[in-house]
Amino acid sequence: MAPTVLLTGRSLTRREFDAVVFDRRRVAFAPAARRAMAASRALVERLIREGETVYGVTTGVGSLATERINHDQARRLQLNIVRSHGCGVGEPLDPAAVRGVLLLRANGLATGLSGVRLRVARQLTDFLNHNILPVIPSRGSVGASGDLAPLAHVALALIGEGEVLFHGKRLSSADALKRAGLRALELEAKEGLSLVNGTQVMTAMGLVALKRAETLVDTADVAGALSLDALRGSPAAFDERLQRARPHPGQLITARNLLRLNRASAIRRSHRGCARVQDAYSLRCMPQVHGAVRDALRHLRGVLEIEMNSATDNPLVFAADGEVISGGNFHGAPVAMALDLAAIALAQLGSISERRIDRMVNPLTSDLPAFLARSPGLESGMMLAQVTAAALASENKALAHPASTDSIPTSGNKEDFVSMGMGAALRLGPMLRNLASILAIELMVAAEGIERLAPLSTGAVAEVARKRVREAARPLTTDRPLAGDIARLSELVSAGEFGKVLATRTPRR
């Protein structure tokens, strides 16, 4: 059995995140985290006994923070916070994102800075370990104070009032808790506020999207290498010396990938010394463009790795100092801006892929048969495959519009500048699906183009990718609907089957 992931609040890795989210690894709290939570809870209870003013504990929340709440009303306040904030709408988040939310919220509480009982944090891990997934509506968060509405739906499920998915069935949380042998959580002072305050939803969605995006940028290198040979392009622009003259990390990685993929290409050998001096940018500048995408994703990875090990609710409880401090760690600006950059990068990756597709089917830019048809004129070949790619690339450009540049004041203008981080996260799913289809089309078109140059063959590693294309899409011998081919290839792209080609040892020819 795989080892349990122990949460400390400060040491969760992306590998552990993926293990819990995708492989259902069990989760528990490290002893140090349990002690930290106990200490901060003790301070909260002491301050309540002493009648201290603590935001969200002995006061209302948001613009109602000036309203005083007495000790007898503290529990009712927390329940009201959870119920009143459950205003989400739209389709539910997918199960992977929900598991990520539960994990990150538990890890945030494990820092011992939220002032909640261990019982609250354990309810989150119990849901994870029993695979009870709250139904979280996807719309309703402006990203400050964190993801209030989505997290409220998580909290509702914890107290037995929301809806969940349990063994694939949607049912009431109360019913699922009964079937799993668990008890509904009863909230004490501060605990409802701590559960709804935080950036865990946008962060979890960002981490899930990042895993998929990293696969797609690898796939883009593979598809680009096939397109290079289909268009009789030159790998000279990928020379290590040239790349080191401008040594952006992602650029170096992509250039090396492209050189390796096309090494020993008979197609390349056949046109050495031809009259063409330089290739079009969509070929020659793959290291610079794909590499910039890699660097944008690297930035997102760094932001999310900090965020996943942070305390992002409010106020925070510093037991060692005996203080509770109100602040703004719930504000999603760091995550929102990084997600916006990633969206721009994904749009760029799809756009340059579409340009390579066009060059392969366009009789004005390739030496291949027009639209790769067997009988151009009588047949349209892959003309409409490029049209589909163009439509998807255009849609991604629209989706890439930054979300974080917008702000609509909320909560009686108390929350007068918000991040819109949830919007930044939500559009990544559609963008990734569109990009997977664009790359699938490029792979299909490039394989067809290379085969039209037979008996010449592509590079040894690139040939592995071409053969994988043919496992899902047969050669084009006459006009036929290509939708099924694109769908099958998109599924393989999304599953990482073409990205894995980069790990292939150079086959013997």
Describe this structure in words.
The chain folds into two domains: 194 residues, Fumarase/aspartase (N-terminal domain) (Fumarase C, Chain B, domain 1, Orthogonal Bundle), CATH 1.10.275.10; 256 residues, Fumarase/aspartase (Central domain) (Fumarase C, Chain A, domain 2). A hairpin with a 2-residue loop joins strand 6 and strand 7. The strands form four sheets. Strands 4-6-7 form a three-stranded antiparallel sheet. A two-stranded parallel sheet has the order 1-2. It has 20 helices and nine strands. It is mostly helical and 509 residues long.
List keywords for this structure.
2 domains, 20 helices, mainly alpha, 9 strands, Fumarase C, Chain A, domain 2, two-stranded parallel ribbon, Fumarase C, Chain B, domain 1, 509 residues
